Amino acid sequence: MTRLDVDRATDVVGSVTFAMGAALTVAPRRTARWLGLGDHARFARGIGVADLVLAPGLFRGRPRWPWVAARTALNLVIARHYFNESRQPSGDSTARYGAMGMLALTAVDGALALRLRRSEQATRSS
């Protein structure tokens, strides 16, 4: 993956983070239901606000890797919520799939954070 590819991937993470953050902040109950997060509007809005805090750093932060690492950590919080939601008597398969999806995103974002860190360190040392 070239430096340009890594930067583009980070821009995609930033765009998705911003869009989801806006939706979760503006319409937390509806978005939480749509995403399978259950009836947890306060949790959804909290995740939305965290996303909106992360988005500018994902786009403009220098270095960018700590912002992607923070996004990775937030993915784990969301995955845990999905896992807990899937264990509820009323839990459905959406929450189970949400947990698996967030774990997959955690792996992707974590790998991206490491790649960015290496790339940014190489740029500084040259």
Give a quick rundown of the structure.
By secondary structure, the protein is mainly α.
Name some characteristics of this structure:
single chain, 126 residues, mainly alpha, 5 helices, 0% strand
Describe this structure in words.
There is one protein chain. Helix 1 runs antiparallel to helix 3. The protein has helices at residues 3-26, 28-35, 41-60, 65-86, 93-125. The longest helix is centred in the last third of the chain and has 33 residues, at 93-125. The chain has 126 residues and is an all-alpha fold. It has one domain (3-125). The protein has five helices and no strands. The model has no long low-confidence stretch (mean pLDDT 93).
How is this fold's topology laid out?
Layout: H1 3-26, H2 28-35, H3 41-60, H4 65-86, H5 93-125
Helix pairs in contact: 1-2, 1-3, 1-5, 2-3, 3-4, 4-5
| Rounded radius of gyration (Å) | 15 Å
* Count of DSSP-assigned helices: 5
Uncertain residue segments: none
Compute the number of strand runs: 0
H/E topology pattern: HHHHH
Classify the secondary structure makeup into a structural class.
mainly alpha
What is the rounded distance between the termini?
19 Å
Q: Please give the share of residues in helix.
A: over 70%
Overall mean pLDDT score?
A: 93
* Count of domain modules: 1
Largest sheet: none
| Beta-strand residue percentage | under 5%
Instruction: Write down the overall geometry.
Output: elongated
